[in-house]
Write a structure and sequence with these properties.
494 residues; alpha+beta; Glutamine Phosphoribosylpyrophosphate, subunit 1, domain 1; Rossmann fold; 8-stranded mixed beta sheet; 6-stranded antiparallel beta sheet; disordered C terminus; amidophosphoribosyltransferase activity; Amidophosphoribosyltransferase; magnesium
């Protein structure tokens, strides 16, 4: 039973102010979120759990949402463009019957913003129904796709997730678990997969554990999520992280089993999850995100103290680091910047003057807090530099006498090939400018980036024998944990 939410008017258009995350340069020049997955095994109200779980993961993708349930071997699914609350309602949720389910929120990083690419992707193959949801990016997807097409495969989407479905369908193994193992071994990249058939649910993580992926429990039911914050939302408890190169398998009539489909490689959890992407109330590898960001802020203060009157953070991901910086220095933390959370999507085109002042539609400076003050502005990263310039100028227009910018991560110099939407290297300001040149470009009185070691110490995974403490830092140091091709050839599209 399939339901698709069609929209006669396109949701995103570059002609309008709020044009969508990947339709060119947006007012907030931040890194593009990844995707989020949520899964349920053995709960009578699986669809509702997925709905609330996706709400908790909404920050990971605002373009589309979908749920596929399994009702004693019969699949029901619904997908639509937009936010979770825009896609689902009581009428379509009540049709999603079943005790097992997988769900997805999507942010397309290169795959087209179309309903056909919304996940979970659902297929018919020789073994019956198959549904797949993923967070991440398959680096060798283009090569595999060309190989499969030359062998007769016909692709229905531009999502690299479909590659896995074809590999499973073409496997010489009839057993789904063995077929999935065989398929996963051919992939290179970062991925957290939820794979559902009529009697099986499989959770699988890439050999470097690049993407966060956790298992929880609610009564006798088991849950999977890209972030632990979703477990709190539905009242579940965290059990463990899915490990690198691991499959956790549930099959009707069998006990849960855990198997390795390949040898785990050097662990390389994305450092930007700790810095920016994950919600502050999530834990990754048992490290709380808010606590890690506070430590980064404290270390940033030690590395780059400057005398000032107030400390403020760019909402929302930089607030924790700003609090840490303020606590370390003794400079008061203030809400100098306020985010408007209700701008939503709009199809009303503003005047050019309003477009140029567009940052004020989403962010406001609190004049009474910053007027006549020396301000330390904490942010988590600088991508192109355009947003930093707008925010610095926003503070100056509100009367700040000095604006000192402190970034709670190293300079972002290299594109990501693992499911984060980043500009090409030539468009990353830190790849083509010195720190002093960046300072001038963003109109700051001073600028300092946290050192890589400071960031890793702040994350706090410890000296576990893994390179960079078990974090992927390729965007900072150009050391990728897997083979990667030319950035113009590889396009991330979960």
């Amino acid at each position: 039973m399939s339901h698709e939410l069609e929209n006669k008017q396109p949701l995103w258009t570059g002609d309008y102010y709020n044009e969508g995350m990947n339709a060119g340069e947006s007012i907030f020049d931040k890194l593009g979120e990844e995707c989020g997955v949520f899964g349920v095994w053995g709960h009578g109200d699986a669809a509702s759990l997925c709905y609330y779980g996706l709400h908790a993961l909404q920050h990971r993708g605002q373009e589309s949402a979908g749920i596929c349930t399994n009702d004693n071997g019969t699949f029901h699914y619904y997908r639509g463009m937009g936010l979770v609350k825009e896609v689902f309602n009581n009428n379509n949720l009540k049709d999603l019957k079943g005790s097992n389910a997988i769900a997805h929120v999507r942010y397309s990083t290169a795959g087209e913003s179309k309903l056909v690419n919304a996940q979970p992707l659902v297929f018919k193959y020789r073994g019956g129904d198959l549904a797949i949801a993923t967070n991440g990016n398959i680096v060798n997807a283009k090569e595999l796709r060309q190989q499969l097409e030359s062998q007769g495969s016909i692709f229905q989407t531009s999502s690299d997730t479909e590659v896995l479905a074809h590999l499973i369908a073409r496997s010489e193994h009839n057993d789904i678990v063995t077929a999935v193992k065989h398929a996963l071994k051919q992939l290179v990249g970062a991925y957290a997969f939820l794979i559902q058939t009529q009697d099986t649910l499989i959770a699988a993580l890439d050999p470097n554990a690049l993407r966060p992926f956790a298992m929880g429990q609610l009564g006798d039911a088991y849950l999977f999520s890209s972030e632990t914050c979703a477990f709190d939302t539905v009242g579940a408890s965290y059990v463990r992280d899915v490990h690198a190169g691991e499959m956790i398998i549930f099959q009707q009539g069998h006990e849960m089993r855990i198997e390795s489909y390949t040898e785990a490689k050097n662990k390389a959890v994305c450092a930007m999850e700790y810095v920016y992407f994950a919600r502050p109330d999530s834990d990754i590898d048992t490290v709380n995100i808010h606590a890690a960001r506070k430590r980064m802020g404290k270390l940033l203060a030690i590395e780059a103290f400057t005398d000032a009157d107030v400390v403020t953070g760019v909402p929302d991901s930089s607030i924790s680091a700003a609090i840490g910086y303020a606590e370390q220095t003794g400079i008061p933390y203030e809400l100098g910047l306020i985010k408007n959370r209700y701008t939503g999507r709009t199809f009303i085109e503003p005047s050019q003057e309003l477009r140029e002042q567009g940052v004020k539609m989403k962010l406001s400076a609190v004049r009474k807090v910053v007027e006549g003050k020396r301000v330390v502005m904490i942010d988590d990263s600088i991508v192109r530099g355009t947003t930093s310039l707008r925010i610095v100028n926003l503070l100056r227009e509100a009367g700040a006498t000095e604006v000192h910018v402190r970034i709670s991560s190293p300079p972002f110099q290299n594109p990501c090939f693992y499911g984060i939407d980043t500009p090409t290297r030539k468009d990353l300001i830190a790849a083509t400018h010195t720190i002093e040149e960046i300072r001038k470009a963003i109109n700051a009185d001073s600028l300092y980036f946290l050192s890589k070691q400071g960031m890793l110490d702040g994350i706090g995974l410890g000296s576990n024998g893994e390179p960079n403490g078990g974090c992927c830092t390729a965007c900072f140091d150009n050391h990728y944990p897997t083979p990667v091709g030319d950035e113009d050839e590889i396009k991330a599209c979960c």
